[in-house]
Write a structure and sequence with these properties.
The structure is a single chain. By secondary structure, the chain is of the alpha/beta class. It has two domains: about 160 residues, 3-Layer(aba) Sandwich (Rossmann fold); about 100 residues, Hypothetical Protein, Haloacid Dehalogenase-like Hydrolase, Chain: A, domain 2 (2-Layer Sandwich). It contains eleven helices and 14 strands. A hairpin with a 4-residue loop joins strand 6 and strand 7. Helix 1 packs parallel to helix 11. It starts with 5 loop residues before the first strand and ends in an 8-residue tail after the last helix.
Length: about 280
């Protein structure tokens, strides 16, 4: 029996291939892991609405898996629909972040129950976020004024050349007030302070009365680094950024060559050398 009772999976660049699909081998391995009692957690910066189709494909409502959305801003139990972890973005900082975004020529967006809400719906990086999640975009004249519901994050999108500088400046400006980091070269996550995947996974493990040694986590991007370091077994994808590979316990194949499936077969299902 595997020591790993919880399997946290990043989505883009990890669980899904370049076509945003789960490969058949990976799907089969995950179904077997779920049947063996492993709780699968889809852990992504995506909004909840953008994760649900993959959760449905994996039938997490039957196996008791979870959706960890907004980089840890919210965790939902797929079986009961209970919200297990919730972190709301500080309402008093929404306008300030949007003002900074406009000044640095990046675009802010958030999400409602249906999809994306933003002032620049035709921006190519906004459209990329819509494509990744397969959700619609709603354009509004004034985003801060439009937001009348609790949100979990503001995503800033822009030219990858500019984003490291913008990220650094915003980290300085909002130090002690928000957590800010890149999840893709063209995405900057602005989150409630202290929110990231590992912090929310720690809360989930505590609720399940499990040690972190029982967690296996797979990821590829900068925002996966904390959970890769935190997990009992941190698995970097073959396509992962160098810091994630350096922090991981093991490196698997890339997301177009069944990387997650191979890792699950080896470390959860016990099929050593079944490459």
């Amino acid at each position: 029996m595997t020591q790993y009772k919880v399997l946290a999976l990043d989505l883009d660049g990890t669980l899904t291939n370049s076509e945003k699909r789960i490969t058949p081998r990976t799907l089969a391995a995950l179904q077997q892991a779920a049947q063996a009692g492993v709780r699968i957690v889809l852990a992504s910066g995506r909004p909840t609405v953008g994760i649900r189709p993959l959760a449905d494909q994996l039938q997490l409502e039957k196996s008791g898996g979870c959706i960890l959305s907004y980089n840890g801003g919210k965790i939902i139990d797929c079986r009961t629909q209970q919200v297990l972890v919730q972190h709301e973005f500080p309402a008093d900082l929404v306008e300030t972040v949007c003002t900074y975004a406009r000044y640095w020529n990046v675009v802010a967006l958030t999400y409602d129950a249906n999809g994306i809400v933003t002032e620049q719906p035709d921006n190519p990086y906004v459209q990329e976020e819509a494509r990744i999640n397969n959700i619609p975009v709603r354009g509004v004249p004034d985003l801060p004024r439009e937001i009348t519901w609790p949100i979990n994050k503001l995503l800033l999108v822009g030219d990858p050349v500019d984003m490291p500088h913008v990220e650094e400046l915003m980290q300085q400006e909002f130090a002690g007030r928000l957590s800010i980091y890149r999840s893709q070269p063209f995405f900057i996550e602005t989150m409630p302070l202290g929110v990231e995947k590992s912090a929310s996974l720690a809360k989930l493990l505590k609720a399940l009365d499990l040690p972190r040694e029982s967690l296996m986590a797979c990821g590829d991007g900068w925002n996966d680094l904390p959970m890769i370091e935190f997990a009992g077994l941190g698995v970097a994808m073959g396509n992962a950024v160098p810091p994630v590979k350096a922090a991981a316990d093991v490196v698997t194949a890339d997301n177009d060559h069944d990387g997650v499936g191979l890792a699950v077969e080896t470390y959860i299902l016990g099929r050593e050398g079944n490459g």
